[in-house]
Fold this sequence. Notes:
single chain, 934 residues, 6-stranded mixed sheet, globular
Amino acid sequence: MRKIKQLLCFLIASPAFLIAQELKMDSPIPMDPSVKTGKLKNGLTYYIKKNGKPENKVVLRLMVNAGSILETDEQQGLAHFMEHMCFNGTKRFPKNKLVDYLQSIGVKFGQHLNAYTSFDETVYFLPIPSDDKEKVEKGFQIIEDWAFNTTLTPEEIDKERGVVLEEYRLGLGADKRMLGRYIPKMMYNSHYAKRLPIGQKEILENFTYDKLTSFYKDWYRPNLMSVIVVGDIDVAEMEKKIKDHFSSYKNPKNEKSRKVFEVPNHKETFVAVESDKEAAFTQVQLLYKDDSEPKKTVTIGDFRDELVEGLFTTMLNNRLEEKQNSPTPPFTFGYTYHGGTWARTKEAFQSFAMVAQDKQLEALKVLVEENERVKKFGFTEGELERAKSEFLNQIERQYNERDKTESDRFVGVLQSNFLEQEPAPSIEWTFTTMKTLLPTISLKETNELIAKYIKDENRVVILTGPEKEGLVLPTEKEVLAAIKVDENTLKPYEETAIATSLLRTTPKKGKVVKAEKNDKLDITTLTLSNGATVIYKKTDFKNDEIQFQAMSFGGTNLVSNEDYLKASLAMSGLSEAGFSGMNKNDINKFMTGKIARVNPYVSSTSEGMNGSCTPKDFEYLMQMIHAYFTDLNMDKEAFNGFVVKQKGFMTNLLSQPSTYFSNELYSYLNKENPRYTGFPKAEDYDKADYELAYKIYKQRFSNAGDFSFYFIGNVDDTKLVEYAEQYLASLPSTKEKEKIVDLGYRMIKGEHKKIVNKGKDPKSNVNIMFYGDSEYNSEEAFALKALGDVLTIKLVEELRENESGVYGVGARGTMSKVPYGSYNFSISFPCGPENAETLTASALRELNKIIENGPEQKDVDKFKEAEKLDYKEKMKENRFWMTSLTRAHMNGSNPEEMLDYVDQVSKITPKEIQAVAKKYLSKDKVVAMLMPEE
């Protein structure tokens, strides 16, 4: 607490505070000066920003300020259908040539190349290499064609109907059924309630071609468009390209007005209590809709108002999180905020909670009571200080990363500027202004907000959950009673003392006894006096990030079957108790204004921890590691709170057809494995042995000498050695070194077909699996991965583009070395039940073509280009280095192999891919299908 006050005093005394005298609240928020903005004579707006992360890449984005809200009754779903058609034939790229070309330069369809349609806008994403002028020019040709030159041939429209209908099918289910019943109340009397972007099935099946063409001509016009270009580019050159490609287009002579649709206010409190037999989760939503349209953030005064609102939201959610972490949590998780609804023209003060199936009214009462507690008593100075500290820490981190920020993040801000007139200042301005304004915000200002939000009018309460025998749903009368709070029963929020340290005692310091350097990988390995090893790599990929992982061989495979079955469910709840005598809420309060997290785990083959921090909070991360090793609390009340939340989450999960299918399939395949228990049921948590789980955890983390600690990021060598000696070398250890144990359990062998019937909607899932034991071979492992990617290309071409039978389809191949050598290859897709057998045959036919003839060279080349592009980017990411080094550690392989990846990609041949397909995928397979209930 004192440190926070000192920080605020420093800000007040610093030159930045002097700017407060110069900041005029009615002054406009300045646009980021590094962004080149402009508007063509035809009204098209553009934004251009040079940004070097990732290198040699540019993100192009086309935005159309038009979505499903503008559809006529006969066009419902056609805004989204139009988005699909932009990938199915343009003037320069007929039929599927656009996707084919982009794949040839390493741009993956779906992963990189994508688009979305919402109520009010349609947005297209195109990231491409910027170090090749021809590719950049092609990129501009593509977004120009999307905007004005999509061909919309009857043949391609009819082919795409099936794909869009499959996407429509994916959205069917309990959530959509319940949404259809409560949206008329949530978006009362508004056009938004009638214009869900996916549209109406009958219209998608039967619309005439002119309806789609007219939507394109009416709304895809320059004065409703914007082009964003952010990346490793020359700004002047990009501006010229925008002008060359977009200046010649004109708006329609008698253009339709781009209407803005209101959400009418209402006096009543609307209540919707909806249920469904397939609902997996129980939820509570409470909305107090604003009376007026959202105020635009234009001036510095508006920016300050947003800060006040943000502090208010942070403090309220901190209180809800404390409730969530209590021994008797009222919900699995809950939060409150003031923000947008589905309509741009309506914001609301909104609360949400996921709860146990019979606790909706109790959770609703808690959400309302916490609102009313703030209204009556307000927040405390301590809460405000902590919220300000959180804000300062977050903006400082963004500021520190200002030269290491990915282009996508800038694009998102600029998109909001065009579509919703959100401000887009520079991070430098934002950082300085926040530092200046935050100290001037008073508790009185945050406390007064709640009265503006909470009112009896424009209120909507929505309860959704399962429909099942014996479960009584709340009535509207009960819901209305629950939101009435007797304020005389409320007590003010009570502050608790804030801890002064994460550790109870300072550990006895150990030593670094050996240091080795790998120059190829630029990593250093330290051996500590207790036998532990520390492997670290100092990078400049991010200024304010250190990634961490610790690992040791062993895991629950060293535990008897009997003990494993008793303790497995409890293992994941151990950290809920906190450490060093502090509960989770104590730790969260202490860590306010600091960024460091550590998560311990025990898997089947290893135990370890992972986490991250900023360089300035590195010592806190090390202290957490030490505490989780030596001083994990044992707290049955905290564990009971974990059980309550897990039950609330898991109770109805198997009502969801896809989850039920997965559980049935893997229970069948693992029927010979005595350790396999499938998805846990609520009653299973009551049998979980917490004390045994705690004992297993303590044993697994009793020997730090068997651990390797990895740190990747902006590491200070001197501090790392200092902290390693203080907090890691001091951990207890023995000389014992454990190994990975293979228990010998396997999924069943042979050829199998498993059909699972679940769900009322006409939806199916197909999963084709090949698996088995094999000696691990890194070349074969890579070829199997390549096979998965290459086959995916062919499956998309055949099952989606030619047969119009799926929305998405994928294949994936892997090999594992631990705990035993194995291979696994799968093909999966959702589809209509009537097409499941036919599409399965088509998928296997495409696979057999590769087995018999090998893949086409052009598809292998597409895989190579995509892998090289991805690798080039990932080599500048801390997470990728961490994954690569720890995987090599786990597999006992040479980590230097990661440096040869481009060479490995370049050398892969169709023959090698064909060879692994023949070797592994000519064997037994499992075909599993989810079908509707009969």
